[in-house]
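Researcher: Next entry in the queue.
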Amino acid sequence: MSNHLQSHTYPPLPASSSSRRNLELPPNSTRPKPKPKRKRKRFLPTSRGFSSFLYHTSFYLFILLIAVLLVGSAWGLGDQAFRNDDQKKWNIFVLVAAYVALGIISVLHVWSRVLSIKRILRTMPKPYIPTKTVDLPKTVAKHIATEYSRTAVIAHISQATTGQQEGWGRPGTKWEDKHFRTYILSTIPIMRQTLAPTSDVSPLSLQPLLDASSAIKDNGAIRLFVNSYAKIIERARYGRKEPDQADAEAVEKVVEVVLLTLEVKRRREKDKSKPQ
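Model: Structure for this entry, 276 residues:
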């Protein structure tokens, strides 16, 4: 009994963190590996950056060098002129006048350059976007040129190539601003007046035209033209698709052929009826 009480103590002792972790993990699971630290990229100096650094530093270095030389030469010449007792005042005057002239010329030159640069900048368009190798690295400029060409090709392909609305004539032709369906149907009164002027049938009927063309003795040529004309008229009346330029031109030719044929036939009949 005493041994049993000694083996089980109350309250139970808390398990260690390692044993608790081992109990919680399933037997086949693996511990997540720590993510490797990302190494920071070192920015190595490039030839373009080095040349840019040399360009800017050399500019200010030469300005400083010129300023030192001017001050040194002025100091040396002034000291030499001051020590010459015979023409001391004249030498100092000439030296000061020379440096004043040099300063004025330098200021005028710098001011002219500033004005010229401002004038050049004014001529540049305001929405200027640097895209050339002069303003950008070569790889960036090449990428911009490639994407620009790709965009231009896509824009060209997506544009309308015909420039024509369905059922209407193309701009710049004789069919400009003409509706083909309206034009085709407007030729029916002309054909009725030419082939069947005395017919009492409904104006919408094409049967008088077919009968009149069959009555003409010309080996059936007019009949063929009128049949094709009637088919185009039916499509223009009841077809869902708009007539195109070919239909309008076909109707125009049929009307011209019928009018000219009947006119020639009437003249021949008049010539035959005249007494010789």
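Model: The chain has a mean pLDDT of 77.
Researcher: Noted, moving on.
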